[in-house]
Amino acid sequence: MIIQQALNSLQLGSIYALIALGYTMVYGVLRLINFAHGDVFMVGAYAALFLAVSLGFPLIALAPLTFVAIGLLGIVIERIAYKPLRGAARVSAVITALAVGLFLETLMLAVVGPEPKKFPALITTKIHTLGSFTVTNVQALIIIISVALMIGLDLFVAKTRTGMAMRALSWDKTFAPLLGINVDRIVSITFFIGAGLAAMAGIFTGLAYPVIDPYMGIMVGWKAFVSAVIGGTGSIKGAVLGGFLLGAVEILSTAFLPSTYKDMIVFGLLLVILLFKPQGFFGTPAQKKV
Amino acid sequence: MPSKFIGPGLFLCGLAVTLSCDALHLINPYIAQILMYIGINVIMTSSLNLVNGYLGEFSVGHAAFMAVGAYAAAFFSLSIFPHCGPLLFPLSLLAGGFASGIIGFLVAIPAFKARDDYLAIITLALIMITKSMFENLPWFGGPQGYSGIPKYTNLSWVFAAAVMTVVVVRNVVRSGFGRGIIAVRDDEVAATLVSVDTRQVKIIAFVIAAFFAGVGGGLFAHLIQFINPRTFSILKSTDFLLMLYLGGSATIGGPILGAAIWTILLEVLRFLGVWRFVVAPVALIVLMVYRPQGIMGWNRKKRENLKV
Amino acid sequence: MTNTPQKNPLFEITGLTHAFGGLTAVSDFNLSLGAGRIMGLIGPNGAGKTTVFNLITGVYKPDGGTVTLKGKNLTALPSHTIVAEGVSRTFQNIRLFKSMSVLDNCLTAAYYRLGYRLPEALLGAAGFRRRESSIRASALDVLETLGLANRAGSLAVSLPYGMQRKVELARALMSKPAVLLLDEPGAGMNPAELGDLVTMIAGVRDAFGVAIMLIEHRMKLVMDLCERVTVLNFGTTIFEGLAADLSKSAAVVQAYFGEDHDATVG
């Protein structure tokens, strides 16, 4: 029973973690909370749906294609809406981010309509029973690929020059350009990766919970955002931890309480954590300077 | 005529006009409805201005205050005074306002320490929790919400409430408390070091803002006669943000202008069908990029502090 | 002008101590200040001078020690209460309220003595309007004394630098302080402006009867204004006494000039 819940938590947690990574990387590099990120995830799911249903692409081709396409969307959003506001008041940037998200939602609503759509079963589900719990190949795929992506990202940030540049930028925005770092390029790459990961999360959501609608970005997106905050915005390990933690909390609360309470619990948890550890588990506390 | 009578005089004239329109059905009901929406939006945006404009906080929770007010007012009209008719309507509105004010107080507390992004998160969590609460608690109609709310809202109530909101907000801003609020926005630490009690100031801003948002919610509920938890989503909060920044935050006229322009624009764009909702965020983005101070805001582009 | 500490000094600090993490910023700082006295707090950069100001005004809660004003213990109180009790300060980097006029900057500092409650303000009652006029009048008075009355309506941050410092001083005086803490008031000024500043600070002391504590690097300002001086180095007091005796202290010379220098200060 516990292992069953653990598996379910890992699956849901993987999805939250993948999206949370996008939030945390952008925050690390730009100090901006990309409120539109959840909706990018939603668009990713729809893009995959389109490729699968209208163009008949199999999963193996669809995944990288969607990653790239949505990654490019991320870059476009950044260039049009966020770049012009880089020096402006924080409030303006936050509102713009909200507006971009809203734009994506209303656009999808206008284009595909509000009714939820069924995501095609790109993999025939095979259930494996091991003792008292079951695991599907979909679950296994999601968890394994997600973890692989997370490890890949961690290695990328730790070992490559671009990754180093991203970290340099997150520590000191003023001096990084003086070291020859092309800020625009690094920011674009950050958005590309974040959006791409969100798109993968969209595909996984479609595979695991086969119904998608234009509003799902709001709920899932905000919960992933909560994960990033709990883990500490700006910390990659934090985003992953936060994602899995949130997945566990949500699965466990649905297991023991009526499902309508789960949102309340998730956001209640957020408030509690923010009150006691406002910088999350891995974030750096803000220093007061007079 | 001494200048201090002009304001109240104008108000009474306006009230006379709205009362006649209501009693004698002088205005086309469609236009009347639009005017009432404008009025309610003026209330919502002016109250939001106190927290987001003058106090400079970033709250996306205004829809939650509206929700609490709407539900509380509806609850009063339906359950507590069901047979008393429109005469006790102001009590329902006050109930809505007070209920919302209490929530405003609760939100002010985390605002003592959190700012900007963190407050956005907290106020967002508030919306989610409020929505969840109304879905789950049995006395508030659950996911179906309330229906059959009597239509007590009319031009006069909306006009009176809107004028009151604007006047009260203006009076707060012009007083020592208002100076404290703006000081906290400009430099919170310096504010405490010139004797401003920042906690008190934040409480004042949030509670007053929430109170009027609650009244607006009550008016709204008794206009559309049907509310459910999904009515008051983050999309609604974003609407008010848009109106505020369109008109110009931290000005008295800005919210009025923004509310009026936006409400009318949405009506005019009705022919676009569902695409008119796409226009809204695009307009907001364009606004933020090209004129973040809105129509009435003065040119004050803040530069982010580059010091480490 | 005696140099013996008074029996019941206006403002007293004993054993003030504070550490950030493992680093001791201020260690056993003591002070005894009487009404109308001006004392200087000097020391190399990073010695802990501004930290002392921050500890006094409640920005940080001291790890140890007490701060007393007119016999009242201010140590654990929140900043806004300390200011209301009568300790005001200015800042090293000017911190005026950016969106406010000169007058409004000053009016804000009267928050603790508004004399009306929120409901009266909301209704625009007569009592409220009377109190506002009275506070306004007192602000214009202060501005007049500092020669700023004709700029009362200007946006505070649009004024030239020297005038902004004056506005900050006016704002600090609005809370009717018994003790005024000035953090490098002469920073960024040329010698001519410094002369004016000396006159102004002495004038403020005479007109408002405040005791003044001054952090400064410009020795001319310190020697012209301060009777007594405390020198901090790495948080510890290495000298406390008459300004005239400064140059005779070996510890001070060493702190400023290093081990082998035998030149004298000032």
Structure description:
In chain A, 71% of the residues lie in helices and 4% in strands. By secondary structure, chain A is mainly α. Chain A has one domain (2-276): ABC transporter involved in vitamin B12 uptake, BtuC, CATH 1.10.3470. Chain A has a two-stranded antiparallel ribbon. Chain A has a two-stranded antiparallel ribbon with strand order 2-3. In chain A, α1 (2-30) packs antiparallel against α7 (183-208), α3 (59-82) crosses α7 and α6 crosses α7 (183-208). Chain A is globular, with a radius of gyration of 19 Å. Chain A starts with a helix and ends in a 14-residue tail after the last helix. By secondary structure, chain B is mainly alpha-helical. Chain B has twelve helices and two strands. Chain B has a domain at 32-233. Chain B has a two-stranded antiparallel ribbon with strand order 1-2. Helices cover 70% and strands 1% of the residues of chain B. Chain B has helices spanning 6-24, 29-54, 62-80, 89-111, 116-136, 155-174, 176-186, 188-192, 198-224, 234-247, 253-268, 276-290, and strands spanning 146-147, 226-227. Chain C is an alpha/beta fold and 266 residues long. Chain C has two domains: 1-86 and 177-266, P-loop containing nucleotide triphosphate hydrolases (Rossmann fold); 98-175, no CATH class. Helices cover 35% and strands 23% of the residues of chain C. Chain C contains nine helices and ten strands. Chain C has helices at residues 49-56, 79-85, 102-108, 118-123, 126-145, 161-173, 191-208, 219-225, 250-257; strands spanning 11-20, 23-33, 38-42, 64-69, 72-73, 87-89, 179-183, 211-215, 228-233, 236-242. In chain C, β4 and β5 (72-73) form a beta hairpin. In chain C, α3 (102-108) runs parallel beside α6. Classes of the chains: A mainly alpha (290), B mainly alpha (308), C alpha/beta (266).
